[in-house]
Amino acid sequence: MTQEITARLIDQNLKTSSTEPELSDPSWRDAYSDRDLGWLQFNSRVLHEALDERNPALERVKFLAIFTSNLDEFFMKRIGLLRTRSQAERLKNRVIGPVPIQQRLHEMRQVIIPMLQKRGRCFRRDLKPLLAEHNIHLLDWDQLSETQREKANLFFNRNVYPALTPLALDPGHPFPYMSNLSTSLGFVLRVPDSEENLFARVKVPNILPQWIQLDSEMDDARHYIRLADLIHYNAEKLFPGMTIIDSSLFRITRNSEVEIEDDDESESIRTIVAEELRQRKFEPVVRLELSENPNPWVRSLLMHQFDLSEDDVYEVPGELDYAGMWPLASLDVKELRDEPWNPIVPPDLAGEEADIFSVIKSGDFLVHHPYESFDASVEQFIRAAAKDPKVVAIKMTVYRVGDDTPFVRSLIRAAETGKQVACLIELKARFDEERNLHWAKELEKIGAHVVYGVLGLKTHTKIALVVRQESDGIRCYAHIGTGNYHVKTARLYTDLGLFTCEPTLTTDVVNLFHALTGRSREPSFQKLLVAPTNMREQFLAKIRREIEFQKAGKPSLIILKVNQLEDSEMCQAIIAASQAGVRVECIVRGFSCLRAGVPGLTENVTIRSIIGRFLEHSRIYYFQSGAEDPLEGEFYIGSADWMQRNLSNRVEAVTPIELRSHRERLWEIMEVLLKDRRQSWVMQPDGSYEQLVATEDDDDISRLGTHRTLMLLTQQRMKERIK
């Protein structure tokens, strides 16, 4: 990257990543928290789920893996970005020595290290013994019996040895390339009768399980050995004739925040993204993780080769990569897992004879995943449209769809039967670029209209449109959701979706698709809130209106449920509302740059985070609007968090919820979230969070928590419908 490009990143592209808000009133600074430290607090809450003895053991292992994956992404994106900023500031301002960003990176390190220590203690002291009590034994090499060692070595010879590629470092062998998040063994070798250290690297192959199950000498027991240990204790087979002095396990993380410059209309965005993926493989290393007590010579050599400082190196207690524990976390041991949950099929959509278009035509239809079936509703909507001879066109936006996606298969089937298919695929969806490129090519092969979005914006909205020729003319059916069209995450993430054929709303959806696929510069919308067109202004106007209702002595209340709260303009509007006496309830799963309960600023603001079995992903926005009956207020759902990128740099869509029965359901969801004392963490005025604890006097919702309560309510609702 040239100095000019790096400097431009500082001036243009990194403004949206700043943790310093632009305040209209400097006295409001006490109401703001650091974005990155806030995110680390969120991941600490995720780690707490692994520490929480109320959770089953394998679910706790799962949370260790989630915590680790989250932290990996944080280093790839945020730490990588801040390191780039640090280098760019030196270039731009010709600074020699440390810059303020380096101090921030050091502060984050001081937060991360205790979390890694907690993770290691949890696994070693709590989970390994607990799993052993249930005959799941995660063993070190010296704990294996002679028979088990023989079988492990035989497995190595047959399945591991052929897959390994030892790479030496010497004048004839340059330092080997190492891929992002790869785990390796670094060996210290010597030629016999020599005192010179030689380095060799062996990658621990990720195509094999990171924990190898061994045949048990007890029928009901499972025994596992680390793949890395298996390689270590068979290393003499890799380096015959050499003396092995020592080895250290290490893992690298590369910067993934490669900037995509898509303002050149002459170059295909597909070509640009493909080049970014190629470039990302060779981005600088931003973190080196080593197992405890690494060989000092290996440690120093790696730091030198990757140009790292001490602050970039982490000696990790416990396991090095808990993300490799997903297979263990998925073991089918009922007493160590959450009670299984099978999403319920809404009665109107049950059975082979169910006609989803007739159901939508009879009235708007609201679904809540994963409590209600995604397969029987959202997936069925596109599948039925692909088969229906009356359907003339299908349009969808795709942000993340996963590997084995039924949606793309349905779109391909529709295009092959002559239907018009238009699919807007966001190629810049972070870490899904390669997958989305693949599906774009598959759709283009069969003649579907594939569009890559609007220049300069990411398309994050979750909408689908089906155009159907019916006896009384053309009718449009739409799905407007809060989550991705992804069948796997639909079982893990909470999301909402509205199916509608209401003409005004579907016309808005048609207009949005025309703006996305065509050249419309000023699309008009009557009901939809669309970013970056009108969403920010509409939300700000609604907050100002709540202030006016409060001043007039009328009911006022704002409830906001989002994943992140960061946009400075929206935060300042919330501060103004709080100062006017408006109660603002914020349910923010991840980080919030706004602090709650700060005297004189956010005294009327509460911010809570719900962490548990499902990932809270749905976005709900509520404004009481002076109504005595809260159900007469304004309800919205959609794809946008209140972040600067969502409101200004992405295409997002938010829909009003107008049917009273649907409003009742949203109100029920929000009441459950606000009553939760099992999974809820509440922010304190200093920006820290305290976990709520239920007492015997609390009601069932408070004690059971959000996810268990909503599962029970969904079952109850369906039983009543069937009666």
TrEMBL record:
The Polyphosphate kinase N-terminal domain sits at 32-138
**Its Gene Ontology biological processes?**
polyphosphate biosynthetic process
Pfam families, sorted? PP_kinase, PP_kinase_C, PP_kinase_C_1, PP_kinase_N
Q: Where is the active site?
A: 460 (phosphohistidine intermediate)
What are its cofactors? Mg(2+)
Keywords (alphabetical) are:
ATP-binding, Kinase, Magnesium, Metal-binding, Nucleotide-binding, Phosphoprotein, Transferase
Residue positions binding ATP: 70, 493, 589, 617
- Whether ATP-binding counts among this entry's keywords is yes
Q: Which GO terms describe its cellular component?
A: polyphosphate kinase complex
Instruction: Please list the residue ranges annotated as the Polyphosphate kinase C-terminal domain.
Output: 355-521, 528-694
Which residue intervals define the domain Polyphosphate kinase middle in the entry?
148-326
Q: Which residues bind Mg(2+)?
A: 400, 430
> Which SUPFAM superfamilies does this entry report, sorted A to Z?
Phospholipase D/nuclease, PHP14-like, PPK N-terminal domain-like
Q: What does this protein do?
A: Catalyzes the reversible transfer of the terminal phosphate of ATP to form a long-chain polyphosphate (polyP).
Q: Which family does it belong to?
A: Belongs to the polyphosphate kinase 1 (PPK1) family.
Q: What is the protein name given in its UniProt record?
A: Polyphosphate kinase
Organism of this sequence: Bremerella cremea
